[in-house]
Amino acid sequence: MKSYNTYLFDADGTLFDTADLVCNCFQYVAQKYTSISLARQAILSGYGLPLKGQLIKQLGDDLDIDEVLEDFISYQMQILEDNIRPFPGVLRTLKTLKQAGKKLAIVTSRKRYSMNRILEITDTAQYFDTLVNPEDTTLHKPNAEPALLAISRLGSDKANTVFIGDSQYDILSGNAAGIDTVIVGWSHMDPDTLPVQPTWKIDHMENLVSGLSS
Predict the structure, then answer these.
(1) Could you give the count of Cα atoms lying within 13 Å of 67 in the half-sphere of its Cβ?
(2) Is residue 1 situated within a structural domain?
(3) What is the CATH number of the domain that holds 11?
(4) 214 falls within a domain
(5) 97 pairs with which residues across the strands?
(6) For every one of its 214 residues, what pLDDT tens digit does the chain have, with 9 covering 90 and above?
(7) Is 127 domain-assigned?
(8) Domain membership of residue 29 as a residue range
């Protein structure tokens, strides 16, 4: 694939393997507050959306959703360190892009304090020039606003920016922002079912740096 000046990354499911973490937390609150048994694939289908909306979708809106959300987050922070790891090739790729002078950002639906903790655990904060969290925007993925805010903060232009993600919400957000997109091959969804096709599909994170010398 071609080389860009600016790389916007989704976090969960793209840079970091958080599938077990997210599923464990959803199943924890589902068992505690409801009689609903949540299937793993049903949980992962909401990957990339803000957590509160996911909880309402999965558990219903007749609960004290703020209480459930607080419990979910508290439990997640307790088990976070043992349930988070970068996907293969992520650290090498981020280092290579940074050394090549590229601008890097995370555009995520994960709250800032939680995202910061993940970056601390994985020692990856050093690679990113900015983070866009749900606290930063009125509208969220799949809307263009998070991607556009990252581009603005970085002083980048759309023609030289790409958004890398694992879900339809990332691709839709990038497409709405008018930038190129990448779907990763370790996504939990079938790329052929995407409502909008990405510019690129990659099977390995290192594919992002294949065009740096061209």
Answers:
(1) 7
(2) no
(3) 3.40.50.1000
(4) no
(5) none
(6) 899 999 999 999 999 998 899 899 999 999 999 988 888 888 888 776 778 888 999 998 899 999 999 999 999 999 999 999 999 999 999 999 999 999 999 999 999 999 999 999 999 999 999 999 999 999 999 999 999 999 999 999 999 999 999 999 999 999 999 999 999 998 777 778 888 899 999 999 999 998 775 4
(7) yes
(8) 19-83
